[in-house]
């Protein structure tokens, strides 16, 4: 049974079918990339899965349960962590304190009483920020802020990470480090990652299956090399002659 499954998922905005009958599945512990031209419905699909938008039709299942139309906080509590393009970190708080925020939001006072503060530290280690735990988040680089937000999702015990263009605005070095980081998370086994990305070097480095969307629909799924070689995908996504 897949960890995530969408069935004939749809979202209409007025006359526009932004997501137009998407059947998508993701096995637990896998890493998967979602690509496609601007406006093809990638972020809307994330919004439908995470509960930020109610679907116009279709269903969403997570870990065997139907989650269609649940509120974002309910979806998050079930273990789906959504990362937006702009990192939502708290500048004035230390790196370590930032990690307490999602746990506090989830568990409230129970979190402060709990002896288990290992999860946040483990999450910082997973993203390579353990050495900066006492720095104010304001002092992190742009790339490090993105990684901190991924750590916040991990600390909130998300089992499925939805990452929307996590390398946006990153340097080449940071982008490569992010591919390694994300690959490591999935390889470690207990987290499943679906990442929207258009950076080709990043997709090649990830080495995971890629699903291509076009006009609200799934056009193709395959590995990076097959997708790069696909004539229809090249025409649509990479641009003719590139
Ligand atoms: P992508 O993330 O693939 O670039 P989006 O999912 O953001 O694309 O958008 C898909 C289409 O839906 C676009 O035409 C966009 O303008 C439209 N759209 C997205 N969100 C909304 C919204 N909240 N209201 C109206 N139209 C929207
Ligand atoms: Mg988008």
Helix and strand arrangement:
Elements: E1 4-13, E2 16-26, E3 31-35, H1 42-50, E4 57-62, E5 65-66, H2 72-77, E6 80-83, H3 95-107, H4 109-113, H5 118-126, H6 142-155, E7 160-164, H7 172-188, E8 192-196, H8 200-206, E9 210-214, E10 217-222, H9 224-229, H10 231-238
Parallel strand pairs: 3-8, 3-9, 6-7, 7-8
Antiparallel strand pairs: 1-2, 1-4, 4-5, 9-10
Helix pairs in contact: 3-6, 5-6, 7-8
The chain binds adenosine-5'-diphosphate (ADP) and magnesium ion (MG).
The site of adenosine-5'-diphosphate has 11 residues, from strand 2 and helix 1.
Determine Rg (CA atoms, Å).
Answer: 18 Å
Shape: globular
The poorly predicted ranges are none
Largest sheet: 6 strands, mixed
Question: What is the CATH C level class of the domain at 4-89 and 158-238, in words?
Answer: Alpha Beta
Strand percentage lies at 15-25%
The average pLDDT value, as a whole number, equals 89
CATH architecture term of the domain at 4-89 and 158-238: 3-Layer(aba) Sandwich
How many distinct beta strands?
10
* CATH homologous group name of the domain at 4-89 and 158-238: P-loop containing nucleotide triphosphate hydrolases
* First-to-last CA distance: 39 Å
| CATH fold label of the domain at 4-89 and 158-238 | Rossmann fold
* Series of H and E elements: EEEHEEHEHHHHEHEHEEHH
Work out the oligomeric state of the chains in this entry. single chain
Which secondary-structure class do the elements indicate? alpha/beta
Helix content: 25-40%
Please work out how many helical segments DSSP would assign: 10
Distinct compounds present: adenosine-5'-diphosphate, magnesium ion
Walk across the major sheet and give the strand order.
Answer: 6-7-8-3-9-10
């Amino acid at each position: 049974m897949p960890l995530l499954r969408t069935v004939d998922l749809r979202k209409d905005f007025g006359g526009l079918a932004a997501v137009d009958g998407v059947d998508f599945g993701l096995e637990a512990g896998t890493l998967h990339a979602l690509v496609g031209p601007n406006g093809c419905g990638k972020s809307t699909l994330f919004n439908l899965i995470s509960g930020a938008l109610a679907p116009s039709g279709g269903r969403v299942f997570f870990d065997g349960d139907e989650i269609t139309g649940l509120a974002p906080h309910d979806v998050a509590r079930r273990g789906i962590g959504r990362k937006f393009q702009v990192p939502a970190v708290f500048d004035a708080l230390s790196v370590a304190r930032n990690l307490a925020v999602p746990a506090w939001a989830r568990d409230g006072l129970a979190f402060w009483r709990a002896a288990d503060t290992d999860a946040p530290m483990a999450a910082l280690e997973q993203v390579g920020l353990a050495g900066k735990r006492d720095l104010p988040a304001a002092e992190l680089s742009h790339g490090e802020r993105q990684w901190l937000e991924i750590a916040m999702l991990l600390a909130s015990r998300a089992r499925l990470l939805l990452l929307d263009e996590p390398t946006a605005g990153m340097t080449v070095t940071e982008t490569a480090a992010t591919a390694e980081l994300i690959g490591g998370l999935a390889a470690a086994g207990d987290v499943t990652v679906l990442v929207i990305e258009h950076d080709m070097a990043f997709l090649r480095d990830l080495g995971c299956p890629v699903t291509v969307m076009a006009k609200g629909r799934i056009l193709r799924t395959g590995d990076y090399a097959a997708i790069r070689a696909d004539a229809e995908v090249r025409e649509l996504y990479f641009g003719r002659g590139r």
